[in-house]
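Researcher: I've got a protein sequence and the SMILES for zinc ion. Could you write out the 3D structure of the bound complex as structure tokens? I'd like something to compare against our soaking experiments later this week.
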Amino acid sequence: MIRKIRSVVLIAAVAVVGILAAGAQDNMPLGRTPAAIVDGQHPASYFPNTELLGAGEMRITALGTGMPNQTKKAVSISYYVELGNGDKFIFDIGMGAMGNLFSLRPDFSKIDKVFASHLHVDHVGDFMGLHIGSWLSGRYTPIHFYGPSGATPELGSKTFIEGMKKAYQWDIATRTGALPDAGGQIVVHEFDYLQENVIVYQENGVTIRSWPAIHSLDGSVSFSLEWNGLKYVFGGDTYPNKWYMEFAKDADIASHECFLPPKALAEYFGWDLSQATYVSTRIHSEPQAFGKVMATLKPRMAVGYHSVQSPENNAAIMDGIRAVYDGPLAIARDLMVINVTKETMEVRMAIVDEYVLPPDVTPAYVKAPRTDTKSPSEAILNGKWPGYTPPPMPQRPQ
Ligand SMILES: [Zn+2]
Ligand SMILES: [Zn+2]
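Model: Sure. Here is the predicted complex with zinc ion in place.
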């Protein structure tokens, strides 16, 4: 009954402001009623599930902005992109990102597309965590993984996903029957890492393209997402490259890695300056490289990410960038949120709870078919201690 009243309130709000696209409403956690943002006046902080996304608005949340050596304040790379038409996309899902995604208490029934820039653990390490966690928390359809090929088949996304499925066979088998059948499936869409600005996804007015990046081995890429006249670019790990300079043109939001400068990197890892210079300026893009890229491209907002964050490091990064670029800039931190429309741009931090309840699932999730229940063998079941009797099993909801 409470839910019924809540949805009536939501529909009324939409009718008044008339800004939300049909079908865009998310399943909200109990107790949250999102409000329309009037005249682009966003609150100073973003409290998840309290704001209706405008029909022409895009919201980008940095879920992870750090390094493989993740910290509590900076987990590995991931961005969550939500569109006013209700679509949602994940770009990279590095280790630790799932915790930040979960802290937003999103409608997991709508999060079923992951785009991977490359197969480093700081970019895909939480993919199985997302797969299982979202299957547990509302997703009842397959999850789709879009990722690059490699120089050889065994270095590509198909092999990565097949390997993940094999490695987690036991985990997946324990959950079949208890969770929706289709939600356990992973569909992999491997595309050619060499393709230049070619479409890898196109649906519902959203076009996503990929192009190569220069990083470690062949097989790192960048993406652009275009929708409703807005362009978001997600740069994969790279040395500054010609494809980014060409295909990230006209970006509203251009994100690109912005690594620690050599000296700060050497101090952080205890490396000698030669190794730090190699990693920072040959495998990655140091702040001046990032700054030069943005000074040339002139996006509406330049977003730098992928660094070890501390007051000293952040100052070193800023000094490097500002020596060569004086345009709009956001150094991404975990849970930084950007709201963008054709007219407005708002950069804020999300405020989330340390302890969060799971998001409420939809009735469709509850009713989705579940078959092939597995259980331990007789040999194991016979080991049940007779001193405990569990409560009777209630009926499943029909
Ligand atoms: Zn990498
Ligand atoms: Zn990386």
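Model: The pocket of zinc ion (ligand 2) is lined by residues 77, 120, 122-123, 237, 306 (CB under 6 Å). The two ends are 18 Å apart (CA to CA).
Researcher: Great, I'll pass this along to the crystallography team.
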